[in-house]
Amino acid sequence: MNIDRMEFIAWMERIMERFDILKEYVLNIKKERHSIDGEELLDNQDLLLMLKISHRSLQRYRSTGKLPYYTISGKLYYKLSDVHQFIRESFKTPIRRTKENR
């Protein structure tokens, strides 16, 4: 199956047009991200993927007050800065092994 140069160029132009359409679509989605006071909000799914935790663990962090959350139209959201603070507070420094604690 042979295609000539003009047909190839036409195909490539169509593909590039579709890439441009997808680019605009992605940029619009980024603009539509939820935010409050200029700060990005994450939903449950975002947080589960980001922290690699289960639904139950996320629920436990909410109920114990370790992770602040906001309810908007029945959906839960988390401020990105609160998530970063939660990660910093949860981080434990490694214990150095010495001869005494082996």
How would you describe this structure to a colleague?
This protein has 102 residues and is of the alpha+beta class. Helix content is 54%, strand content 15%. It has helices at residues 5-31, 44-51, 55-63, 80-90, and strands at residues 35-36, 39-43, 70-72, 75-79. A four-stranded antiparallel beta sheet has the order 1-2-4-3. The mean pLDDT is 86.
Low-confidence stretches are: none
How many distinct helices? Answer: 4
Order of helices and strands: HEEHHEEH
State the share of residues found in helices, binned by percent. Answer: 40-55%
Overall radius of gyration: 23 Å
Binned strand content? 5-15%
Whole-number mean pLDDT: 86
Structural class: alpha+beta
Please tell me what the overall shape is: elongated
Our measurement of the CA-to-CA distance between the termini, rounded to an integer number of angstroms, reads 70 Å
Main beta sheet, described? 4 strands, antiparallel
Strand order across the biggest sheet? 1-2-4-3
Number of strands: 4
